[in-house]
């Protein structure tokens, strides 16, 4: 069944996913539990391991939307994701949090815009819809209970952003059992609110056994944060928002999203319901996605619509170190190129990505772990130069080094 909201206000509730329908749930459900769910545990572990490279967001928050027809700007939505992830590092405890300004600096040109985004979040509420005590219910949750804005805003990264979530919003995260695992580097490159919401939904669903999502048009409009009263005709809504969001997400995400005509539900000529299908990309597609994210943002829209622009060489953007998913995608692309250079396939298969790191000299290099000592020795002696060249070519000089590590030998136990 598609997700259809009803206007029944139920304040002071916690949201969970419905497991009683026998089908994969498409929408959040309201329950009255006060226990620490799996989402909080995953968020804490992810933050400890990855910092802000991966962001955990409760599925219930993914499927929420601003109340009273209001909208959250793109910078505010991105900042909220960083805030939620930070709170997850401490099991969504009700406390004053401190977010380093440098984490969100890439999306904001100055402190004034940073704190304007925080104020926007503070003044907003989110709506979550789902069954509660046997009936469809509508919950409005305030997001922030307070935030601190310094009187003198210094234009550097030394200051931090201080904020506190409401207990109801924290309880939403604490009780959650499903989540979306967002890529920080990918999320910051998204350029529209429509695409960001579609990206979040896809990251929550694409690895499910049943990743499709049926939505009535009104709910789709709310989830995508379409302005109230805008694009009332579905054809205009589709061309101005949905199709553009799908194209951008397909360019930057590890999945593809489609909205098949055959699955649209119509009453006469009017489209009343659509289905979004999410598919994991294959190895080649993932490699292409990584390379696109590494390219300069100038010309990305032209590449997306198939109109390649001739541009002057651009200044290379200072980007965070690629995360593990991107490193694996880079190595997948590099293997294809190295096979064309006659590097033996068995040797390449025996090399796995360990990490991407930055040396003391500021050089970025890919660290590969060999399955056998002989593989590491052969790769270093005969193929290291080829690997370096391919990496530099694929990343436009961003990653120019490689280190190949031999497996650690286990110490033999002394004879008894």
* C-alpha Rg (nearest Å): 23 Å
- Poorly predicted runs: 1-33, 309-319
User: With helices defined by DSSP (H or I, 4 residues minimum), what is the helix count?
Assistant: 15
Give the termini separation.
66 Å
Description:
There is one protein chain. This protein is 38% helix and 22% strand. The longest helix has 22 residues, at 373-394. It is α+β, with helices and mostly antiparallel strands. The N and C termini lie far apart (66 Å). Strands 11, 12, 13 and 14 form a four-stranded antiparallel β-sheet that branches. A three-stranded antiparallel β-sheet has the order 4-6-7. A three-stranded antiparallel β-sheet has the order 5-9-8. Helix 3 (74-88) packs across helix 5 (111-122), helix 8 crosses helix 10 and helix 11 (283-294) packs across helix 13. Strand 13 (265-267) and strand 14 form a beta hairpin. It has three domains: 1-184, no CATH class; 190-280, Arc Repressor Mutant, subunit A (Orthogonal Bundle); 322-405, GMP Synthetase, Chain A, domain 3 (2-Layer Sandwich), CATH 3.30.300. The chain has 15 helices and 17 strands.
Sequence-ordered SSE layout with sheet pairings:
Elements: E1 14-17, E2 28-31, H1 38-50, E3 54-58, H2 59-62, E4 65-66, H3 74-88, E5 97-100, H4 101-104, H5 111-122, E6 125-132, E7 135-142, E8 144-148, E9 160-165, H6 167-174, E10 179-183, H7 184-187, H8 193-205, E11 213-216, H9 217-223, H10 234-252, E12 255-258, E13 265-267, E14 270-280, H11 283-294, H12 300-304, H13 324-340, H14 345-349, E15 351-358, E16 364-370, H15 373-394, E17 401-405
Parallel strand pairs: 16-17
Antiparallel strand pairs: 1-2, 3-10, 4-6, 5-9, 6-7, 8-9, 11-14, 12-14, 13-14, 15-16
Helix pairs in contact: 3-5, 8-10, 11-13, 13-15
